[in-house]
Amino acid sequence: MMRRKPSPFLPLSWLLALVLFLPGRSLAHPMPTTTVQLDLHTEYVSAELAVPLNELQLATDWKLVNNKQVLEQYGTAVRAYLAGHLALTGSNGAAWTVQIREPTLSEAHQTATGPYQEFVVAARLTPPAGASVRDFTLRYDAIVREVKTHSILVSVRRDWERGLNNESGNESVDVGVIRADPRTGLVPLLPVNVEQGSAWRGFVGIFSLGLRHIAEGTDHLLFLLTLLLPAPLVVASRHWGTFGGTRRSLLNIVKITTAFTVGHSLTLLLGTLRIVNVPDAPIEALIAVSIFVSAIHALRPIFPGREMFVAAGFGLIHGLAFSYTLAELNLNAWQTALSLLGFNLGIETMQLLVIAVTMPWLILLAQTRLYPAVRVIGGSLAALASLGWLGDRVGWSNPLGTLADELGAVGPWALLTLAILALTGFGLSRRGRVHPSV
């Protein structure tokens, strides 16, 4: 009797059976990761926990996915669940106080998994008196304790003393990854030991934030530059006329820029200290209105000689928008004082830099017959951009708003074009081929 050879495919079939029928929670698709983002303050740490619904459903057997009443049904349970899975201890072993806030529901997307929903939950983590917020041990095993293939990414999102403000949302410093041990299934603790910072690093970080806020704040710059567009000109018969002279042009520029600075500095202070609290939606809409008003003025003078007052008035609006950046950092009194100084200096430095590389070309160009066309085109584009932004900010999404958001990317090219036009027009006027505007 012949002995039968074992099939080479048998072990593979056993492995498939084990994967299909082995008890426990196993996954056949890429899983979204949980994230823990930490904000370090002087006396406490705030955390933002992002918890994917589909993975939490696997861990708890709750009906979360495609549930329109998920927050109403499970909001309290989610807080209790996270409170049982989150704990911190200091270097001396003393426990921290953990306060879990109400969860919100958010849409998220990861490259490997595509779009999904997640709970976003804020937590306040307070150490015992005298303990450092920079040295602690984190126990966080939500989902990963039940779903062994899950992972948790932990990072520091904001740390004023190290100049980490993360306004753009992608500057976090990684702390570590929490995963279950594949052999024991246990979830390890994560030591968190953040390097010390300083007041100087905090000041420099806020100064850089002010620079970046203006460099990326196309709407703020567009308002000021559009208001300055007719600054080299005098008014004749209710229209913009000829070049008013270099000295007069520079004086107008200084007056308008200073007035805007005074206006936004005042409300930056009041907004940061929460003395004035205005929702950001109407402020953003009013910023778009300010650009539209300055654009109309560039096309035809509607408040000649009063540009300084208009700049100061609208500067109050822009300053409130600036203040939201500092107010959300939740700094102590000393950090707030340094931040107000550093942030304002950053704003003014970038603002003056943009004016310094733009206005000489406008003054030069204003002495040629090319300037009326440049002024009209510039004012018209600013008006269209402001209408697009205004539509977006009152809830009407439109193509103009999308195009306006891209204006910052074409700024260097617009400056180069302006310089070429100014040099060409002035050179031709010196040869008598293009006469100054009359």
Task: Give an overview of the whole structure.
Helix 5 runs antiparallel to helix 10, helix 6 packs parallel to helix 8 and helix 10 crosses helix 11. The protein has 2 domains: 169 residues, no CATH class; 230 residues, no CATH class. The protein starts with 9 loop residues before the first helix and ends in an 8-residue tail after the last helix. By secondary structure, it is of the alpha+beta class. The protein contains 12 helices and 12 strands.
Features:
single chain, alpha+beta, 2 domains, seven-stranded mixed β-sheet, 12 helices, 12 strands, 18% strand, elongated, disordered C terminus
Q: Which range best describes the helical content: under 10%, 10-25%, 25-40%, 40-55%, 55-70% or over 70%?
A: 40-55%
Shape: elongated
Count every beta strand, where a strand is a DSSP E run of 2 or more residues. Answer: 12
Number of domains: 2
The residue-averaged pLDDT reads: 88
Structural class: alpha+beta
Distance between the termini: 116 Å
Rg, nearest Å? 29 Å
Major sheet characteristics? 7 strands, mixed
Q: Ranges with pLDDT <50 over ≥5 residues?
A: 1-29, 434-438
Number of helical segments with 4 or more residues: 12
Order of helices and strands: HEEHHEEEEEEEEHHEEHHHHHHH
Query: Beta-sheet strand percentage?
Result: 15-25%
